[in-house]
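Note to self: keep these together.
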Amino acid sequence: MFKTIVFCALLTTVNGDLDDILKGVKRNRDLEYVLIDLLNDIARYNDLTCMAIICDSIYLNVFEGTLFAKTFTIPYVIIVVAEHEDLLSPNFYTLESLRQARKDGCSTYVIILANGLQAARLLRFGDRYRLLETRAKYIMLYDIRLFKRELHYLWKRIVNVVFLRYHSKIFDIQNKPWFDLSTVPYPNPVKELLITRRIDVWRSGKFHYNRVIFADKTKNFNGEILDVVYLDHVPSVVVKKTNESRTVGGVEIEILNTIASKMNFKPKLYQPLNAEQNKWGQKQPNGSFSGLLGEMVTGKADIAVGNLQYTPYYQELTDLSIPYTSQCWTFLTPEAMTDNSWKTLILPFKLYMWIAVLLVLLVTGSIFHGLAKFYMRLMDYRNENKKYKGTDLHINKRYLDTKPVGLYLFEEITNSILYTYGMLLVVSLPKLPSGWSIRLLTGWYWLYCILLVVSYRASMTAILANPTPRVTIDTLKELVDSKIKCGGWGAETKRFFAESLDDVGQKIAERFEVIDDPDVAVRRIVHGDLAYYNSKNFLKYLSVKRKNVHINMNIDNSTMNGTETPVNTEMQRNLHIMTDCMVNIPISIGFHKNSPLKPLADVYLRRIVEVGLVEKWLNDVMYHIRSLERNEEEIKALMNLQKLQGAFIALAGGYFISMVCLICECIHWNYIVKRDPHFDKYAIDLYYQKRNKKH
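Structure:
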């Protein structure tokens, strides 16, 4: 009797398990049919490039030959995961398969896993490391564990998803099992509880409502409010304050408003906590991020505006739109306090030109002296060959009478150089030399002097008529040679210079300081202690801001609201923007990581750029700043003592050299000439005649 009971119990158990198995097989067969209809619908109305199938051993029989035979020919990747595998840290083969599917550009993911927790961990892993294309189309089994509060952020990124919920037949035998097709309620915000939205119902091999399964949910947000975090950075975002109201404008705000009007959403602007100090934000010791990046990483903001650079650092943390412009990033440097007005006399010619003029002067003076000596010796030779009668005095008198006129000018080398220099200054010779070779050389030398003097005078006139030249830093080499410190915002900027491949960038990194407050940087620049790194337009804004602190620019800043008195800039340096660009960086608008907004927003942004609206908005923002830019007063064709400083220095130098020469002559007269035994103060001419004969 006992054996009979046990057998019956076993038979009952076996029959129950068999029913469950057959029930599961039948359910899987229905799942296969609904997948066939879904994939054919996707392939028919969408560009299905590749399909990634992720399943476990329980649902492996769904993906048999029947499914692929009844669907369009589609490349696919099948990934079978073990039931015990932790997909938040998948094994090597699963990881490589996911990478290959992403590399192949699979636009549809079919995730059929019996364990909802396992599917949730797979989505978290794929989103964190961008191994899953979140903007692709997803087909998943409905599981309540996928909609926990800590997973709500996933359904703001994966919005093209269809959940398949199996319902068995009820009451009437004729009613067959059916599938409920639902999706996330995007773009409606998910609050405390996520409730899926029904799309369609599949029963008996067909869809009941025949709706578009994967409709584009980003075309029309139906007036939903999206959180937009912004950072005040000219010209991307400009905050204007009038009385108690605050208006946010700028290039990126105009772009945002245009995209919002096309996609039908309302942007809600707000600033991150401690925006003035944190700005874009940095990684904290606990692993979180501050500032604007912190709002994007945590998913609190949908869009970020504030001059985000299109760099790998920002791309890793957020999704960036296509660049709408490119900005020149350079340094704001101090102008040198050195006044070079004392160089006025030498400024018309460069160094090599002065060297050439000096060499021509020495060479030409030596040639004049050599020709004069040649004529003097030629006359002496002729006189020696002639036989004269009379006294020596009579011969010397005839010699002096027949001496060529003007040769005494170049007889001595010092006089030759001085008279040659006099011709260079357009001073005529006392007498014209009699030698034809000297006369011809004098004529051609005069032509040279005229051309040289005219060029010098024209350049000198331009220098005196124009304002005093400014001594500025315009190249990276000049910045490195200046030895002043460099600064900018954030440790990422310093890392950018440290990782530079050229020596100049690495030298800048060695003396680079992280400065979060641009006002502090400007105060250091005017004292010649720092060069500040930022975009050229923002540096222009800082330069104008310093010069116009007493003018109300209606910009929300403590130094721009008219409460601060003008600074005394007489003893401070002027600011100068370096003309060389360190790098031209593309600028984009930011979206939260794996945002579904990006594809359509890129389309509208590209159209905005192509029609020239970005350039127009940029000119509108910078026009107000350029209009306040005060140039130094330049009164041309008006001389002052500062411009003639070089002339007075030259005159003072002449006085000094003349005085030194006079003192030397007095010393020579008193200590050398007067102490000579042959010196006679009553016959000085005889003394010098005897001395000349000795020499």
